[in-house]
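Lecture 7 notes: from sequence to structure.
We start with the chain below.
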Amino acid sequence: MNVSLRDIKKDINSSEDILVFFRKNKLGGKYYRDLIKKYISDEFGINSFTTISEYDNSGDIHINLKNICIQDLKHEDYKIIDEVIDINDVIIRERYFRSGLDYYKAHKLIIKCSKFFIDLFKEKKCKLIIGQPVDNYVMDIMTRIAAYYNIYYYGLCKFIYSDYVRITTKGEINKIREVNDEEIIKFKNRLSIFNKNIFYNSKFNIYKSIIASYIKYKLKCIYHYFILHKLLGKLEYDFISVRAQVYNKSIINTLKTSILFNNRINDIKTNKQKSIYIPLHYFPEGTTEYWIKDSNKCTYYPYLTRVVNRLSKHGFNIYIKEHPAQYLKRDYKYLKDIGEIKNVVLLSPFINTSEIVKYL
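Predicted structure tokens for the same chain:
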């Protein structure tokens, strides 16, 4: 909701007015737990509040979809769901659903999740939910149901400077406060001397992360996916979605993908008059899945392929650089399909962007 924090503050009179959503469990989500707590203390002067989480012992309220039965839904529940939940939109934006989950299983999870939040917001009359930007179907549904009950949601996201936070639910711009000229000038000066590449990583660290990612994926598949989800029936998001997240999932995929990239820009012949540079986006993540209004474009690869193909047919040379945080982690078939388009060159993330721009 595009309402200033200044206006919302007028409605916040006690800790009962705030509900805090923790996206991760206590161990995995410590950074954002601390960030959210500090923000609420600084902005509202409140240090005690109700918390909610999908994970056992991670919040005062446990989002346990396993305990929700379809037969518990009433006619009034379905009326609310029909009004505020676009089920097909929820499905296409959710990476776990897109990765191959049966449509009816996805539909069932959406209905159960909707029922949980309908019942919660009927009973708990909070005015503001504070968490992180929407990044999965549970958060997506929570914010849609909250809006129906006129409950504000603010997602806090870390910024390059620790004394600032970004506040957005699904990428929208929110009017938080009035900023004076002195602060604007001071902030611009800080940015002007900011020369750190926040995405830079050495080759050694990247290759080390590839190995660690593969091991982490296999362990999570065994414990989170097969034991906690498949065997014990837990439906918490981090358990069910392991195979849809970004990891090095296969040694064969990693080796095949590695040969697709060009490592030296100077070895490539180019027509500088008709060259286009495209840095690949990290995917999947919330900025593409939930920030883009048109859900037909949020799946990234199909739309990217369409754009690149169109540019190729117009005679452009397209230089596509891999994101350093996703090197050798994408599915080989996606990159192969794009790389086979005429006049397309896939570039290694180790090539400096300034070199590419100068060369083109």
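Points to note: The mean pLDDT is 90. The radius of gyration is 23 Å.
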